[in-house]
Amino acid sequence: MLWQILENKIFLAGVIAWFFAQLLKFIIEGIKTGKVSAKTLVLPGGMPSSHTAAFIAIASMIYFIEGVSNLFILSLAVAVVVMYDSVTLRRQVGKITKSLNSKLKAKISDFSGHTGLQVLVGFLIGIAIACLVKWIF
After folding, report:
1. Where does the pLDDT of residue 101 fall: very low under 50, low under 70, confident under 90, or very high at 90 and above?
2. Residue numbers of the domain that contains 17
């Protein structure tokens, strides 16, 4: 059963895209801050958007396998919601959190969502990884 899951190209594309984006985020954050933190491998926010990369890779693989099917349309809709949410709602929540942190003595964790560029890079990673999975596996 586990082997069947690992052979699934849709699952594989999503996991690889997420992992690659998180690894890239880890490297970029290390270069930017001069500090290496393993927490960066699992934290949301930052460059690039790993959620976008994963959902676009999944939608792309579904398209490669099924074409324009109901499942592809659904996966694309979910990917668009994830991207929209990360640059709007999550971004605003991050701004509110920063404002509260400056006024309160308690520290609230700040995950500020993504910029449009971070989502765009995640989008490109997702498509690239799906293409690699399609042609390699």
Report:
1. confident
2. 2-136
pLDDT bin (cut points 50, 70, 90) of residue 1 is low
Domain count, the chain: 1
**Cα–Cα distance, 106 to 65 (Å, whole number):** 50
Could you write out the DSSP letters of every residue in the chain? -HHHHHH-HHHHHHHHHHHHHHHHHHHHHHHHHS---GGGGT--SSSS-HHHHHHHHHHHHHHHHHSS-HHHHHHHHHHHHHHHHHHTHHHHHHHHHHHHHHH-SSPPP------HHHHHHHHHHHHHHHHHHHHH-
Query: Rounded mean pLDDT of 62-66?
Result: 96
Residue with tokens 């991207």: 83
Predicted TM-score (pTM) of the model is 0.86
CA dist 39 and 20 (Å) reads 15
